[in-house]
Design goal:
The chain is mainly beta. The protein contains 2 helices and 16 strands. The strands form 2 sheets. The chain has an 8-stranded antiparallel beta sheet. Strands 2, 4, 5, 7, 12, 13, 14 and 16 form an 8-stranded antiparallel beta sheet that branches. A hairpin with a 2-residue loop joins β4 and β5. Residues 1-21 and 26-31 have low confidence and may be disordered.
């Protein structure tokens, strides 16, 4: 399902957003255009903060699919994306769902191709060390999903960071050419490094990314 909607309470974008220079923070409650792919979106108050919630369309609540909210504006190639996210498994989700939430970048077409860093928040403080090691994930759609990356390159495209399901987590993504780094909660060092982005030195849109099994919220987006 693909929709183009104007929402009171989503992100204001302009040409300056992707220009080099000082950080630009945008009020997510200023009306703008947002292209939803297999998702619904609404402004809410979550844990004392105004945020944008992504939810699955009716009938997709128990499906196993990506949800994308593609942001208007010029293409993003290199730069830094900062955002705060909160994700947890939906109450009706399967037991193996972890609350998948993150940011897709260099999104092409109708969400046909994109790079993505996402979190599995309920793994952050799991008692099992192997689950903790899968707290952060890089994927590249459509050819490089988590399962293929884990099978062919165990441990290379996922990592650990401390986080709590359903609580706000700050992430920063730094992209340059075919390389990208993911920072979590203001850490000075990246928690996950990818030196071979599968789409190469590409360009495309930025999107809020979540999963149909997830209760997900986004706030305080900055791009520079």
């Amino acid at each position: 399902m693909i929709r183009t909607v104007t929402l009171c309470g989503v992100l204001l974008f302009g040409a300056a957003l992707f220009a080099k220079g000082p950080s630009a923070a945008y009020d997510i409650f200023t009306p703008s255009n947002l292209r939803l792919i297999n998702a619904e979106a609404k402004p809410v108050n979550y844990h004392g903060r105004r945020a944008l919630e992504l939810t699955p369309p009716a009938g997709k609540e128990k499906s196993d699919e990506d949800m994308l909210a593609v942001l208007a504006g010029p293409d993003f190639k290199d730069g830094t994306i900062e955002v705060e996210v909160a994700g947890a498994p939906r109450k009706d989700a399967r037991e193996d769902m972890r609350g998948f939430i993150g940011i897709a970048f260099r999104v092409q077409g109708e969400g046909d191709k994109f790079e993505c860093f996402y979190l599995r928040p309920s793994n952050g403080r799991a008692d099992d060390q192997l689950r903790r090691n899968h707290a952060l994930q890089y994927i590249s759609s459509p050819d490089w999903g988590w399962k293929r990356l884990r099978t062919e390159n165990p441990g290379q495209y996922e990592s650990y960071a401390d986080m709590v399901a359903g609580e706000w987590t700050k992430i920063k993504i730094v992209v340059s050419g075919a390389k990208a780094q993911l920072y979590v909660n203001g850490a000075a060092q990246p928690a996950l490094i990818v030196n071979d982005l599968k789409l190469g030195d590409a360009a495309g849109k930025i999107a809020l990314w979540s999963h149909t099994s997830t209760e997900g919220y986004f706030s305080r987006l900055v791009v520079h």
